[in-house]
Amino acid sequence: MSAPDPGRPPPLLSLRGIEKWYGEVHALRGVTLQVARGEVLGLIGDNGAGKSTLIKVVSGVVRRDGGQVLWNGREVALRSVREAQALGIETVHQDRAVVGTLDVARNVFLGREPTRGIGLFRVLDRRRMARDAQALLRDLRLHIPSVHQEARFCSGGEMQGVAIARAMHYQASLVILDEPTTALAVTGVQTVLRFIRRLRQEGIACLFVTHNLHDVHAVADRFVVMARGAVVASLRREEASVDDLVRLQLGSEAAGRGPLPGTA
Amino acid sequence: MDGARTIVERAQLLVVENLIWAILVAVFLAFSIALPHFFTLQNVHFILYVASAIGLLVFAESLVLISGSMDLSIAHVAGLSSMLVGALTIQWIPGMPGWTGIVLIVVVGAMLGSVNGTLIGWLGINPFLATLSTFLMYDWLTFCINRGAISRVSPALTFLGGGRILGVFVAIAVMLAVCALLGFVLTRTRFGGWVKAMGGNPQAAQMLGINLPWMNFWVFTIAGALSGLSGLLFIGYLASIPSTIAGGDDIFLAFAGAIIGGVSLKGGEGSMAGALGGVLLLGVIDTGTAMTLIQPAVRGFLNGLILLAAILVNKYRLELRDRILAAHPGTSGAAV
């Protein structure tokens, strides 16, 4: 660990040399990046670049095999989703992590449902879940007919709304959005982008993972380009047009095809 | 709540959601018309009684199915825990007070179930293969302990399964209490919600921080404990502990009752109230055909045929339900 700089507060999240192997596949090769407080960081790269794996590490879904994670300058283990949530990291997963057979309200609170009573007599506070879910969805300007409907009858955009409502409810300091606009209609995309802008206004950092460069260029403060499990470029919004991002993504992929350290 | 849904659709939905009860009443009335002594209070009492031991197996299987797994071993968990505790309290340690057997049988059942839970939750073995192995092991272990039967079972062990209070079989109360308790857990507690979530979408459940290995462990352990309790009811029913105590068709009936009762094989869907309906339908059909002059072999075949019919009806029921809900996805009638 480097000596703390007394003049400047440490970044919210700092990843140093993150490694991840899936069997023989070297999915993350020493990824180093930082997210500042309130910053919207666009993480881009082609399929298989390691974006989703990196997200899973940060959200606690999978454990890293090497490297350090610093949260507000302090090293954290990040061994489980619960630990990430406790730190204030909320994740909107690529497939939205919605259970179709449960109703919308239950989905918003799934895993952390509010309860009443104590000990063995702790029961779900269903009224509160319904009320809060309704308020959250109204706040997101999402018009789901009823929070009691089973989630499998929601459209893709509505399911995304459910996943976002979840992130909104728990007052995170960092919200990770993994491909939130993929497979969404235009209005759904607008809802997501509006949500990201709102996070920034509230000073909440956002890690926005996508391969839709137009979407990310519309909201991100900074871009990090990944290819073949490593960070290949990092640039500020002012430094790059959408076309630059396209070239970077394509170029990095081509460059990535060369021999990389650690490959046979 | 949802104004878009018409009264006709609401009525359809009400029928579709509660179809098992309509079928139950219809089948019951059909037997009542065909058989002179079917429609009596005594017979209803008897139907409930014979349904109780198998009922606990159905509830156990329902819980496992809702969690997105399956358990082929529950009937033999019931058999082995009965035989083991019977041998322990009656033959090996003769001085043991009978009531300790009641507690032991549930504990042993839970332990046998936890073996499944460990194999599936932590070793990641497919539930079908894991429970197929334990099914064989538990079945033959029961024979290893005793090839014949333990008779002279202490009254404490037969009370829950064979005793009566005010003329009513205690076993019926046990079945209804377990059904109510599990229904409560499934609909009103976090654990129950997570069981449904892991069955409906395991990846989502995991990403939201639900610990799937632990959940699997507990689901199979609870199923084991219920199976042990079921074994206790079988002991009271038979007034002895044969090595075949819960074998034969019992495991298939456990699946049948759950599926007839609307529990999905795909996981994530089903209720204990529905499972109870399935149990009672099995009981009505079994008792009804037993009261006819049909030979046992043909009866077994007919039971299978009726089961198939029920499964087909359930399939169309679910399709119809989806159509109604998809047309106007307001509140689902099956909120609980």
Topology:
The complex is a heterodimer of chains A (264) and B (336).
Chain A: E1 13-22, E2 25-35, E3 40-44, H1 51-58, E4 66-71, E5 74-75, H2 81-87, E6 89-92, H3 104-109, E7 115-116, E8 123-124, H4 126-139, H5 156-169, E9 174-178, H6 186-201, E10 205-209, H7 213-219, E11 222-227, E12 230-236, H8 242-256
Parallel strand pairs in A: 3-10, 3-11, 6-9, 9-10
Antiparallel strand pairs in A: 1-2, 1-4, 4-5, 7-8, 11-12
Helix pairs in contact in A: 5-6
Chain B: H1 7-17, H2 19-34, H3 41-66, H4 74-92, H5 98-121, H6 127-145, E1 149-150, H7 155-162, E2 164-165, E3 168-169, H8 170-188, H9 190-200, H10 202-207, H11 212-238, E4 241-242, H12 250-260, H13 272-290, H14 296-327
Antiparallel strand pairs in B: 1-4, 2-3
How would you characterize this protein structure?
The complex is a heterodimer of chains A (264) and B (336). Chain A is of the alpha/beta class. Helices cover 33% and strands 25% of the residues of chain A. Chain A contains 8 helices and 12 strands. In chain A, the strands form 3 sheets. In chain A, strands 6-9-10-3-11-12 form a 6-stranded mixed beta sheet, sandwiched between helices. Chain A has a 4-stranded antiparallel beta sheet with strand order 2-1-4-5, covered by helices on one side. In chain A, helix 5 packs parallel to helix 6. Chain A is globular and about 50 Å long. In chain A, 49% of the residues are buried. With 336 residues, chain B is mainly alpha-helical. Chain B has a single domain, classed as Orthogonal Bundle (ABC transporter involved in vitamin B12 uptake, BtuC), CATH 1.10.3470. Chain B contains 14 helices and 4 strands. In chain B, helix 4 crosses helix 11. At the A-B interface, helix 2 and strand 8 of A face helix 9 and helix 10 of B.
